[in-house]
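As a warm-up, study this chain.
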Amino acid sequence: MADYACTMDEATLEAALPAPAAAGAAAPARVAPRACAAAGAGNGVGTSANVGTPPSRPLVRGKWLKNDMPRERLIEEGPGVLSDTEMIVLVLGSGLPGHDVFDVARSLLDRFGSLQAMLDATYSDLDGLRGIGPAKKAQLLAIMEMARRSLVDKLHDRSLMNSPEAVQDYLRIGGRTQEVFVSLFLDARHRLIRCEESARGTLTRMAVYPREIVRRALSLNAASLIVAHNHPSGAVRPSASDCRLTHTLREALALIDVRLIDHLVIGADNTYSFARAGWP
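Now compare it with the structure written out below.
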């Protein structure tokens, strides 16, 4: 079926037809259907057009999986219900052609390990990630810098980290079922520069490397440090390994003129302070 249809009365049609060509003469050019429609309109003749473009299939919301709609879930249930991957999807908005935005978000988390680690990413750290071009890199870095500045402003407005109770209230790790070791890097006025998880335990042990903590203190230009870890059992009495670690860390930090203010062992209801107890 032709895309366009022309309607003419017989007299108009006869006048429009070219005279018969002489023998050997070139055949007249064929009039395109669109030109035919235009000619009919110019002669005051009614035309009708039927462009064969099928309507796009509507997207029925009820048939979408919930996991495919992080924006709708955020609006309906709040941001707390979203996974880290879904939060990154919302920031990215869309992937590049040929790259699903969920796959791009997962590749980001695979590279950095956590949202917290992503906050320290640089432009070059994002190189080699498929589906993330210069514009997406700039967008991610801007969002992460906003998060960093917001955290710094909020933490500077808080009470100083000048007591075990203040640190315990800030960390809230006493009720965790997995052992974690946290480092709080402070400036000369005991204001928080950065709080980082330095180690996470398995079912049987937790490996903490003082060298890495010292290196991080140097990179952040910290003047002092508070470290803390939780005991999932709830008991806050430090173990022999806790005492050895505290002694080693104090000596290592002293070599770079960074003071270890305290090491806290935090339980569900109580906190043990090495500084208050007179150190090991």
